[in-house]
Amino acid sequence: QKEVEQNSGPLSVPEGAIASLNCTYSDRGSQSFFWYRQYSGKSPELIMFIYSNGDKEDGRFTAQLNKASQYVSLLIRDSQPSDSATYLCAVKGGDYKLSFGAGTTVTVRA
Amino acid sequence: GAVVSQHPSWVICKSGTSVKIECRSLDFQATTMFWYRQFPKQSLMLMATSNEGSKATYEQGVEKDKFLINHASLTLSTLTVTSAHPEDSSFYICSAGLAGYQARDTQYFGPGTRLTVL
């Protein structure tokens, strides 16, 4: 089983601030990386995916990947109360299976 | 696009009974579907990979005789929890990958089924 580590949080940020989430993974053969958002009692919804080293931006979200360091991060700019959720980092290898981290709970203070 | 549905959304049953959960890809064909289980305050754990027309592949520690998976068509996979017990109470979530599924492709998650066994 591939290991995916995340800071469990909770991470509390004021509205309008940047929330920074980190994730490390153990399998160097991992090919693709995903960030999911999960509200309490709901299933995960995809926020972003990234395959190549560097940054990828989508609206207020930026994913960063560093395969050499086996590290992927997610930045949430201009955080809103609706961003309060648990964020799951997921990693996929050549076996098509997703391995999830434990999730980081984010609370955005109004 | 890429909508996955699950039915039922929640179910309460007595210990010893069997429960069937359906997972459907509504607007795409899914050769591969995945079944996850999530206990409170924990992350998703993959239970099994369901391939259309063939036997499911179970993760280590998951009892294949207790969690029966059938993937009879490109749009439907079912999970049957047989002889359910209170420790089987959990949030069961399926996901589906597009036909011609590749390692880089995204999995689309269903809304989940909350099972409570009394």
Structural commentary:
The complex is a heterodimer of chains A (110) and B (118). Chain A has strands at 4-6, 11-14, 19-25, 32-38, 45-50, 54-58, 61-66, 71-76, 85-92, 98-100, 104-109. In chain A, a hairpin with a 5-residue loop joins strand 9 (85-92) and strand 10. By secondary structure, chain A is an all-beta fold. In chain A, strands 2, 4, 5, 9, 10 and 11 form a six-stranded mixed beta sheet that branches. Chain A is globular and about 40 Å long. With 118 residues, chain B is an all-beta fold. Chain B contains no helices and eleven strands. Chain B has strands at residues 4-7, 10-13, 19-25, 32-38, 45-51, 57-58, 67-73, 76-81, 90-97, 108-109, 113-117. In chain B, strands 2, 4, 5, 6, 9, 10 and 11 form a seven-stranded mixed beta sheet that branches. Chain B has a four-stranded antiparallel beta sheet with strand order 1-3-8-7, with no helix packed on it. The termini of chain B are far apart. Chains A and B meet through strand 4, strand 5 and strand 10 of A and strand 5, strand 9 and strand 10 of B.
Total number of β-strand segments of chain B? Answer: 11
Which two chains form the greatest contact, residue counts included? Answer: A-B, 26 and 25 residues
Radius of gyration of chain A: 13 Å
**Total number of β-strand segments of chain A?**
11
- Strand percentage of chain A: over 45%
Oligomer description: heterodimer
Write down the Rg of chain B.
Answer: 13 Å
Low-confidence stretches of chain A are none
User: Major sheet of chain B: size, sense and barrel closure?
Assistant: 7 strands, mixed
The shape of chain B is globular
Largest sheet of chain A: 6 strands, mixed
Run of helices and strands of chain B: EEEEEEEEEEE
Share in helix of chain A: under 10%
- Which structural class do the helices and strands of chain B define? mainly beta
Strand content of chain B: over 45%
Q: Gap between N and C termini of chain A, in Å?
A: 39 Å
User: Outline of chain A, from the CA principal axes?
Assistant: globular
Write down the secondary-structure element order of chain A.
EEEEEEEEEEE
